């Protein structure tokens, strides 16, 4: 009886304390995944590239996104295709799978991923002074890239030539995130399919979140990264991405399901 009273009290306290502190992103994530628990994706240390390369794309996989069957290392829906599109256009580029759990614990995962990105670029920079980098994030784990860019040490930022984001919750909840250094903001591309509620807060059309796997979006991001690596960077792209609404992904086709198991 005594225990019961205490636990009720504790629960009461927790709900009073936690509710008002929910961030915009936490509320958004709740809408996206509900009560579903995404377990951590196992990281495979042998997928970490060794030695030097001219260019490296650090990819933060989407929540719960496993590696593709065809020797994939970066996420079967998104990262593997993005990397394949990049290497088809430029030689000397390789990918780095950001080492973080990609689970539903996105707050904790974000910090783990952010630190992994910065530590990895720092270490790689010391060993391979000429290596250049790009960052790419998808869905809730675009947050990993976002906060890594916000925390990028000034001596490393110039080596990050391009940042490409897809379905980034930081667009819907900018108040939760730190300022991106101007240098990196000028090298930034946001991809938000009109209606995708992870990034476009004017709509509620979660199926649009699956658009990024389509060639239109994938090639857009890959090209942005490749041009930057080749020394002919395109201008930063923000609002334009949000307006992109080609006929084949017309908003009327909006569904309510989460689609393809990539619930993020
Ligand atoms: C580029 O990405 C698309 C998916 O959007 C994929 O179908 C295509 O195979 C990729 N291209 C290459 C060269 O891998
Ligand atoms: C980093 C970032 O969030 N950049 C932009 C994303 O897109 C919106 C609108 O399209 C811009 O207002 C942000 O500056």
TrEMBL record:
InterPro entries: AB_hydrolase_fold, Cutinase/axe. The keyword Disulfide bond applies. The keyword Signal applies. SMART domains: Cutinase. One of its GO terms (molecular function) is carboxylic ester hydrolase activity. SUPFAM superfamilies: alpha/beta-Hydrolases. This is Alpha/beta-hydrolase. The lineage of its organism: Eukaryota, Fungi, Dikarya, Ascomycota, Pezizomycotina.
